[in-house]
């Protein structure tokens, strides 16, 4: 009997030790396990006072941007940077005569050793300035189109088989993501498309900041020094600086757009830079449109572990204490108000938490109401392929983590209303 009891005790001890050493899961796909959470109120200021007017919101808005800078994305350097714009190529008969294609390089006058941001622009052939979509791409301007006259980028690239070998693009990369950029459709609808490789601003790896803009701006010793997402967002604003000089662009109607990690950057760019007339977030997930306090899909801990260079160092202190974050992502989305905002999800992309993205958009309602606008105007999560909303739009399409023709059709309709 004593041996039996000893054996049982030993088994219990082993099970306990195994459980104690097994890390808690860092993601969840079970809605029943999400649990309860309380979101911070965007309309309660740092002193605990309610925000009731647009003037109150203007002050609260500054507080929220500072809180996101201190705790999530890092401080965007405020110093002005002198830029030089150089047009490197123009094709007046691009897309079989449908468009004007321009290639422009942005140089940093005070930092001549930094690589340029090489911008690819497609302009409709019309007699008026065009509204524009501005978004970064993942694999170089050569991947946006099959046009062989677009030079292959020589910058660092993540290896992707034959398309990128030893971190350099090959001819196999040409047009690799063209389906995500329906250039002809966009131009035929009367819109310009502006894009640049996000690796021009900072290559996407932990040491990518070296030799790029974060190596000369910011303070790497500080826990709120900006991360890669902050740099990509900053780069989008520098491209916007150039577009302010382009007579064929309607500078009052430039939309920030991004997918996945670049969707996070597009949101942060739009929040900080009110020159963006509207913002489109395509499956931006954790650190983007999805609520951080909602334990579903990717989490703060998982994203900080997988991509330690994206956010500021202080963000990692919330890995296991998300409830202590002084802000949540609905407040980032609210910073777009009163401008139009589109948040999109995909039903098979549970990692990005479609419902969490919807809720992020939904909880902007009180802020848009200050401006007499309706945001989503619904609290019901829509069925797939059924867009909802007014000033703020949302859809959850069928399919995986991607950018599809369906997504673009919704964005073009959204843009049509913006330019009316």
Structure description:
GO terms for molecular function: carboxylic ester hydrolase activity. Residues 1-20 form the signal peptide. It comes from Spirosoma validum. Keywords: Hydrolase, Serine esterase, Signal. This is Acetylxylan esterase. The chain is of the alpha/beta class and 420 residues long. It has one domain: 3-Layer(aba) Sandwich (Rossmann fold), CATH 3.40.50. Helix content is 30%, strand content 18%. It is built from 12 helices and 12 strands. The strands form 2 sheets. A 10-stranded mixed sheet has the order 1-2-3-7-4-8-9-10-12-11, sandwiched between helices. It has a two-stranded antiparallel ribbon with strand order 5-6. The radius of gyration is 23 Å and the shape is globular. The termini are far apart. Mean pLDDT is 94; it is low at 1-24.
Can you tell me the CATH architecture? 3-Layer(aba) Sandwich
CATH superfamily: Alpha/Beta hydrolase fold, catalytic domain
> What integer is the average pLDDT?
94
How many domains make up the 3D coordinates? 1
- The counted number of beta strands is 12
In the CATH scheme, the class would be Alpha Beta
Please estimate the helix content.
25-40%
Strand order of the largest sheet: 1-2-3-7-4-8-9-10-12-11
Label the structural class: alpha/beta
Morphology: globular
Task: Say what the CATH topology is.
Answer: Rossmann fold
H/E series: HHEHEEEEEHEHHEHEHHEHHEEH
Cα(first) to Cα(last) distance is 85 Å
The biggest sheet amounts to: 10 strands, mixed
For the CA atoms, what is the radius of gyration?
A: 23 Å
- Low-confidence runs (pLDDT<50, min 5 residues)? 1-24
User: Beta-strand percentage?
Assistant: 15-25%
Count of separate DSSP helical elements: 12
Organism: Spirosoma validum
Keywords: Hydrolase, Serine esterase, Signal
GO molecular function: carboxylic ester hydrolase activity
Pfam family, one: GCE_fung
């Amino acid at each position: 009997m004593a041996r039996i009891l000893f054996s049982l005790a030993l088994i219990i001890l082993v099970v306990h030790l195994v459980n104690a050493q097994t890390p808690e899961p860092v993601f969840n796909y079970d809605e029943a396990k999400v649990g309860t959470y309380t979101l911070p109120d965007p309309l309660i200021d740092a002193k605990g006072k309610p925000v009731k007017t647009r003037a109150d919101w203007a002050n609260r808005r500054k507080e929220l941007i500072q809180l996101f800078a201190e705790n999530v994305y890092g401080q965007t350097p405020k110093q002005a940077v002198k830029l030089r714009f150089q047009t490197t190529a123009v094709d007046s008969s691009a897309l079989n005569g449908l468009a004007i294609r321009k290639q422009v390089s942005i140089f940093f006058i005070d930092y001549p050793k930094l690589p340029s941001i090489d911008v690819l622009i497609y302009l409709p052939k019309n007699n008026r300035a065009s509204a524009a979509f501005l978004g970064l791409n993942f694999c170089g301007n050569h991947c946006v189109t099959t046009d062989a006259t677009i030079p292959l980028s020589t910058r660092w690239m993540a290896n992707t088989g034959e398309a990128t070998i030893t971190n350099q693009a090959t001819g196999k990369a040409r047009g690799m993501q063209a389906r995500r950029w329906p250039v002809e459709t966009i131009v035929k609808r009367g819109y310009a498309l502006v894009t640049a490789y996000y690796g021009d601003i900072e290559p996407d790896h932990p040491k990518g900041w070296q030799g790029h803009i974060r190596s000369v701006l910011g303070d790497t010793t500080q826990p709120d020094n900006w991360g890669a997402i902050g740099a990509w967002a900053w780069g989008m604003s520098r491209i916007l600086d150039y577009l302010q000089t382009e007579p064929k662009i309607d500078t009052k109607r430039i939309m920030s757009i991004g997918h996945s990690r670049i969707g996070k950057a597009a949101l942060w760019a739009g929040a900080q830079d009110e020159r963006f007339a509207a913002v489109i977030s395509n499956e931006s997930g954790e650190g983007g449109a999805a609520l951080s306090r909602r334990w579903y899909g990717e989490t703060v801990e998982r994203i900080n572990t997988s991509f330690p260079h994206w956010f500021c160092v202080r963000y990692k202190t919330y890995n296991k204490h998300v409830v202590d974050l002084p802000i949540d992502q609905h407040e980032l989305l609210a910073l777009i108000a009163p401008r139009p905002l589109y948040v999109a999800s995909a039903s098979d992309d549970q990692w990005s938490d479609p419902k969490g993205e919807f809720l992020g958009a939904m909880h902007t309602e009180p802020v848009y109401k200050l401006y007499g606008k309706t945001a989503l105007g619904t609290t019901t999560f829509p069925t797939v392929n059924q867009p909802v909303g007014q000033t703020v739009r949302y859809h959850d399409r069928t399919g995986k983590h991607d950018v599809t023709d369906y997504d673009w059709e919704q964005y073009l309709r959204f843009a049509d209303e913006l330019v009316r």
